[in-house]
């Protein structure tokens, strides 16, 4: 995976399907943005993990970020700097993948998806 192409694991795909069912949000990119931001809001550093990018969910970075794709990249770079991570393309890609997948898990277990009636 590079930052040009965003892919997720099969496990994350099925987690997002559950989130889609609970929220009615249909677009992968919107859910992935929410997940990424949820993870960035958590002050802890995501645990290193080997995450297989084995699902058929794939989008370009511009689709992921929409009209604000440059802002999401700036947020990622800032977070990497705060966490004393490198700014190489490889490190940015790794940290993005870790944040995205941690955020998907957080999104699935969040109050939003566990109590959707409170958001009507």
Strands ordered across the widest β-sheet? 1-2
The separation of the N and C termini measures 37 Å
Overall strand count: 2
How many distinct domains? 1
Strand content: 5-15%
What is the chain-wise order of helices and strands? Answer: EHHEHHHH
* Approximate shape: globular
User: Would you give the CATH topology?
Assistant: Arc Repressor Mutant
- Average predicted confidence as pLDDT: 91
Radius of gyration: 14 Å
How many helices in DSSP terms? 6
Low-pLDDT parts are: 116-120
The second-level CATH architecture is Orthogonal Bundle
CATH H-level superfamily title = DNA sulphur modification protein DndE
CATH class: Mainly Alpha
- Fraction of residues in helix: 55-70%
SS-derived structural category:
mainly alpha
Q: Mind summarizing the main beta sheet?
A: 2 strands, antiparallel
Task: Give the helices and strands, then pairings.
Elements: E1 5-7, H1 10-23, H2 28-41, E2 58-60, H3 61-65, H4 69-82, H5 89-109, H6 111-114
Antiparallel strand pairs: 1-2
Description:
The structure is a single chain. With 120 residues, the chain is mostly helical. It has a single domain, classed as DNA sulphur modification protein DndE (Arc Repressor Mutant), CATH 1.10.1220. Helices cover 60% and strands 5% of the residues. The chain has six helices and two strands; from the N terminus they run βααβαααα. It has helices at 10-23, 28-41, 61-65, 69-82, 89-109, 111-114; strands at 5-7, 58-60. The chain has a two-stranded antiparallel sheet. α1 (10-23) packs across α5 and α2 packs across α5. The longest helix is centred in the last third of the chain and has 21 residues, at 89-109. The protein is globular.
